[in-house]
Q: What sequence folds into this?
C-alpha cells in the first residue's frame, strides 16, 4: 500500500461532503445571529417610538384614552423585591444545608430531586397551584402577594443551584483552616463560605429577577391581569390588591385590546431590562474573577 | 523526659470498611517536637487529625479508644470541640490563608473565641506574627489580602494564625511539602523556636527533616505504630527491622 | 509551670445557636421538597375531581371540548401538544447541535463569546414577546400556504411549532455545547492522530462521547416546549379540533389561560384537570431527565 504524497495530505482541499457540512454549520450559526438581531431590532424599531415620559410615568386613562405603564412598573418592582426577600435566604439556606450539613444521602437525593422538579415545572402549572393554594386555600385572593409567593417557589431552584455551585467552588482548605481554629459551622458559613460564594449568589439573584420579569402565565392566574390603578394604601394593602406586571400587561394590550403599539413599547422596555440583566451577570462574573 | 502532654490508648479508626488506625498507643511530651514518619497511606495524617477531632465531620468514620490531653479524654461527651481546637492548633499541608486581609486572617481565631476589642486584637496580631517570624515582612501591609503573599510567607502566616488562639499543642501536617527549600528552612528554624513555648506534633515524609527538627520520632506503617523513641535512637539504632528498612530507604 | 486549660465544658457540647442554625438550614433545605409535595397533592386534588367525574378515558380520549354542554374531551389538545413538541424538538435538535458544534469546536473564541451573548438574550426574552412576534411575523408568513391549501388564514399548528423551535433552541444549544466541551481532549487527539479530519473527529468521536449531555438537552427542551403557554397561545389559533399542520389548534397549556377568566364550576375544574394531565407529562420528563443525568454521570467516572 502506498501512502499518498504529503502534499496531498496537507493540501487544503476538502471532500465535497465535508465542504457541505461546514457550509451548513456556518450558515445555521449565521442565521441564528441574524435572527436575534432582526427580532430585537424589530421590537425596538416598533416599540421605542411609543416610549415617552408620560408612557413611563402615568397610569392608563380610559376616559382621556391615554396609555401608561407606570402601575405595572411598580407592580413588577414590588413582586420582584418581595419575592427576592423570601427566596434569597431560603435558596441560599437550602444550598448551605445541602453542601455543609446534610449527611443523609437519601435526604440529599430528595432535596436535589425536588429542586430539579421545581425547575422543570412550567409556569402555567405554577399558576394553577398558586391559585388553588395561595389565592383560594390561604384566602389571599388574586393579589400581588399571591404572585410573590408563587414566584418565590418558581425561582427557588435557580437560587439553590447557583449558590450550590458557588459553595462547591470554595476550597476545602478554607473549611479545614477555620474548623482547625475552633470555628463552629455557623461561624464558618457566616465568615468564609457565604462571602466566598457571593458571586454565585448574586448571579442567582440576577437570573431570578430575569425569570420573574419575564413571567406571565402564572401571574395572569394568581395576580390578575389589569394595571389600571396605582397601588394605594399601606404596603400590605398594596400587596393584597391584584395587579399586572409588565409582561402580563403586554399580553393584555396585544391580545385582548389589539393595541400593538403599546405592546411593542412594553416589549422594548422588557428587552432593555433583559439585556441589562445579561450584562450585569457578565459584569459580576468578570468583576469577582478579577478580585 | 518532659511531662506528657497527650497520650493515646488503643486508638482505632475505621473508615467505612477500611481499618485505618489499628490500636495506636503513643505519648507526646511537653515542649518537644514529635515527628510522625512513614510511607504515604500509613495513617500518620489521619492520626494527626484525630488529635483535634478534625475527622469528626467526615462521614463513615468510627473512632474508638482514648485520646487523653492533660488528663482529659477529648472524645468524652462533654468536650467543647471549639475549646479543644483553640487549645490544639493545626497547620495544614498546603498553606490555606482565608480570602481576607492578613490582619483578619490572624484575628480570625481570637474573634471566634469572642475577642472583640481592637487594642487586644492588634496586640495578638503583632505578637503572633512576630512569633511566626513574619512580622517584619508584613507589618506595612496588614490590610492587604493574604493571598498576595508568597507560598512560604503564606505558610508562616498560617502558623501565626494558629498561634493567635494561644494553643498549647500544635499539630503540623507536612507543613513544608508545598514549599521551596529556602522557605522550608525558615519554617524549620521557626519550629525550633516554637518548641520553647509549645508542644508540637509534626507529620513529615522527609526523614532528614524529622532528624533535624524533632526530639522524638514515631514510625507508622499500615496503620500501626511500629516504633516510638528519641529521634537519635530511631535514626541511629532502630529496634525494629521495618524501621531500619524504611530509614535506609529499602522501601517507601 | 506550664498552663493547662480544660477543654471540658459545663454546657452541652453543641451550643444553642449552632443547633438553631442547623434547624434553620434544614428547613430551608426542605422548602423545595415541601413545595413539590404540596404541588403534587394540590394538582391531583384539584384536577382529579373532573377526571373522576367524567371518567379517565372519556376525559383523555374524548374528542369534543364543549364546556357549555359540559363535554370535556381533551384528546385534540393532547395530540396537538405532543405533535407540536415532537416536531419542534425534531427541528431544533439537529440545528441546535450543529450550532453547538460551531460554538464549542469551530469558531474562534471571540466570535463564540459574541454568539453566546445573543443566545443568552434569546433565552431571556419573555414568552409573551415571542407570542407577539409570532402573531405579527410568523402567522402572516403562513397565510400563503393556508391559501394554497384552501384554508382560512390564522394561527396554526405550524406557527406554534416554529415559535417553539426558536424558544427551545437556546436550551438545546447551551446544554449540548457544555457536553461537547467536557469531552476529554485525549479522545479527539487520538482520532486526529489516526488521520481523521476535523469534522470526522467531531461527528464520529466527540458527538457520540457527548451523547448523554445532548440527550439531556433534548429532554430539557422537550419539557420547555410542552410547558410553554403564552407564546403558543398567541399564535396557534386556539380551536379545540384535531390537529392539522395548517389549521388552528389548541395546546394543553394554552387551554388554561385562554378560558381561565370566564370559567367557573365544572368548567374551571376541567381546566384543573388539563393542568393535572400536563403535570403528569412533566413529571415523566423530569424522571427521564434524572435517569439520563445519572447514567451520564456514572459514565463519566
A:
Amino acid at each position: 500500500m502506498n501512502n499518498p504524497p504529503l502534499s496531498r495530505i496537507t493540501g487544503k482541499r476538502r471532500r465535497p461532503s465535508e465542504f457541505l457540512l461546514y457550509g451548513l454549520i456556518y450558515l445555521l450559526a449565521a442565521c441564528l445571529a441574524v435572527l436575534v438581531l432582526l427580532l430585537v431590532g424589530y421590537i425596538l424599531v416598533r416599540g421605542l417610538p411609543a416610549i415617552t415620559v408620560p408612557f413611563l410615568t402615568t397610569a392608563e386613562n380610559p376616559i382621556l384614552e391615554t396609555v401608561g405603564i407606570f402601575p405595572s412598573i411598580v407592580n413588577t418592582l414590588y413582586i420582584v423585591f418581595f419575592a427576592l426577600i423570601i427566596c434569597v435566604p431560603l435558596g441560599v439556606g437550602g444550598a448551605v444545608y445541602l453542601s455543609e450539613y446534610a449527611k443523609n444521602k437519601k435526604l440529599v437525593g430528595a432535596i436535589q430531586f425536588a429542586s430539579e422538579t421545581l425547575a422543570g415545572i412550567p409556569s402555567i402549572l405554577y399558576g394553577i397551584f398558586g391559585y388553588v393554594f395561595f389565592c383560594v386555600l390561604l384566602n389571599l385572593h388574586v393579589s400581588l402577594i399571591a404572585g410573590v409567593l408563587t414566584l418565590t417557589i418558581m425561582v427557588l431552584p435557580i437560587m439553590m443551584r447557583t449558590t450550590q455551585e458557588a459553595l462547591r467552588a470554595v476550597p476545602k482548605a478554607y473549611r479545614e483552616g477555620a474548623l482547625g481554629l475552633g470555628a463552629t459551622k455557623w461561624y464558618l458559613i457566616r465568615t468564609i463560605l457565604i462571602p466566598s460564594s457571593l458571586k454565585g449568589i448574586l448571579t442567582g439573584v440576577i437570573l431570578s429577577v430575569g425569570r420573574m420579569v419575564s413571567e406571565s402565565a402564572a401571574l395572569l392566574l394568581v395576580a390578575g391581569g389589569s394595571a389600571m390603578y396605582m397601588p394605594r394604601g399601606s404596603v400590605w394593602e398594596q400587596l393584597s390588591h391584584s395587579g399586572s406586571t409588565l409582561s402580563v400587561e403586554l399580553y393584555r394590550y396585544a391580545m385582548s385590546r389589539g393595541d400593538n403599539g403599546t405592546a411593542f413599547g412594553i416589549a422594548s422596555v422588557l428587552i432593555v431590562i433583559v439585556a441589562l440583566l445579561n450584562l450585569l451577570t457578565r459584569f459580576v462574573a468578570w468583576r469577582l474573577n478579577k478580585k | 523526659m518532659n511531662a506528657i502532654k497527650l497520650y493515646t490508648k488503643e486508638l482505632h479508626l475505621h473508615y467505612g470498611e477500611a481499618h485505618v488506625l489499628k490500636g495506636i498507643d503513643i505519648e507526646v511530651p511537653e515542649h518537644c517536637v514529635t515527628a510522625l514518619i512513614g510511607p504515604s497511606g500509613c495513617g500518620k495524617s489521619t492520626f494527626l487529625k484525630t488529635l483535634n477531632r478534625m475527622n469528626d465531620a467526615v462521614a463513615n468514620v468510627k473512632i474508638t479508644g482514648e485520646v487523653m490531653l492533660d488528663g482529659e479524654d477529648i472524645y468524652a461527651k462533654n468536650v467543647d470541640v471549639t475549646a479543644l481546637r483553640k487549645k490544639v492548633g493545626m497547620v495544614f499541608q498546603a498553606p490555606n490563608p482565608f480570602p481576607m486581609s492578613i490582619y483578619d486572617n490572624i484575628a480570625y481565631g481570637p474573634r471566634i473565641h469572642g475577642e472583640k476589642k481592637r487594642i487586644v486584637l492588634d496586640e495578638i496580631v503583632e505578637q503572633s506574627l512576630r512569633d511566626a517570624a513574619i512580622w517584619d515582612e508584613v507589618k506595612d501591609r496588614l490590610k492587604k489580602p493574604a493571598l498576595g503573599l508568597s507560598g512560604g510567607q503564606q505558610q508562616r502566616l498560617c502558623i501565626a494564625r494558629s498561634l493567635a488562639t494561644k494553643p498549647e499543642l500544635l499539630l503540623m501536617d507536612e507543613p513544608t511539602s508545598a514549599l521551596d527549600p529556602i522557605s522550608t528552612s525558615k519554617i524549620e528554624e521557626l519550629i525550633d523556636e516554637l518548641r520553647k513555648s509549645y508542644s508540637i506534633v509534626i507529620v513529615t515524609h522527609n526523614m532528614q527533616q524529622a532528624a533535624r527538627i524533632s526530639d522524638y520520632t514515631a514510625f507508622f506503617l499500615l496503620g500501626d505504630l511500629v516504633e516510638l523513641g528519641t529521634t537519635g535512637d530511631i535514626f541511629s539504632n532502630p529496634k525494629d527491622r521495618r524501621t531500619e528498612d524504611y530509614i535506609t530507604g529499602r522501601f517507601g | 509551670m506550664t498552663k493547662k486549660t480544660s477543654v471540658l465544658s459545663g454546657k452541652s457540647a453543641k451550643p444553642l445557636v449552632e443547633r438553631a442554625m442547623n434547624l434553620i438550614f434544614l428547613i430551608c433545605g426542605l422548602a423545595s421538597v415541601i413545595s413539590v409535595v404540596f404541588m403534587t397533592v394540590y394538582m391531583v386534588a384539584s384536577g382529579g375531581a373532573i377526571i373522576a367525574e367524567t371518567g379517565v378515558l372519556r376525559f383523555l380520549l374524548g374528542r369534543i371540548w364543549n364546556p357549555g354542554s359540559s363535554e370535556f374531551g381533551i384528546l385534540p389538545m393532547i395530540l396537538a401538544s405532543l405533535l407540536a413538541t415532537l416536531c419542534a424538538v425534531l427541528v431544533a435538535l439537529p440545528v441546535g447541535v450543529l450550532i453547538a458544534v460551531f460554538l464549542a469546536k469551530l469558531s474562534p473564541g471571540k466570535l463564540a463569546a459574541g454568539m453566546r451573548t445573543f443566545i443568552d438574550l434569546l433565552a431571556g426574552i419573555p414568552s409573551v414577546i415571542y407570542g407577539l412576534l409570532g402573531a405579527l411575523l410568523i402567522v402572516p408568513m403562513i397565510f400563503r400556504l393556508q391559501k394554497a391549501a384552501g384554508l382560512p388564514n390564522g394561527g396554526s399548528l405550524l406557527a406554534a411549532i416554529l415559535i417553539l423551535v426558536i424558544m427551545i433552541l437556546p436550551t438545546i444549544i447551551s446544554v449540548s455545547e457544555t457536553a461537547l466541551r467536557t469531552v476529554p481532549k485525549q479522545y479527539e487527539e487520538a482520532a486526529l492522530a489516526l488521520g481523521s479530519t476535523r469534522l470526522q473527529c467531531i461527528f464520529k468521536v466527540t458527538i457520540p462521547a457527548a451523547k448523554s449531555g445532548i440527550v439531556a438537552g433534548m429532554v430539557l427542551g422537550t419539557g420547555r416546549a410542552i410547558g410553554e403557554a403564552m407564546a403558543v397561545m398567541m399564535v396557534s389559533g386556539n380551536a379545540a379540533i384535531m390537529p392539522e399542520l395548517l389549521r388552528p389548534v389548541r395546546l394543553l397549556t394554552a387551554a388554561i389561560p385562554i378560558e381561565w377568566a370566564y370559567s367557573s364550576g365544572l368548567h374551571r375544574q376541567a381546566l384543573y384537570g388539563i393542568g393535572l394531565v400536563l403535570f403528569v407529562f412533566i413529571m415523566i420528563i423530569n424522571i427521564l431527565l434524572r435517569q439520563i443525568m445519572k447514567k451520564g454521570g456514572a459514565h463519566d467516572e
User: Anything to note?
Assistant: Chain A touches chain C through 85 residues (CB under 8 Å). Chain A has a mean pLDDT of 88. The first strand of chain A starts at residue 59 and ends at 61. The radius of gyration of chain A is 25 Å.
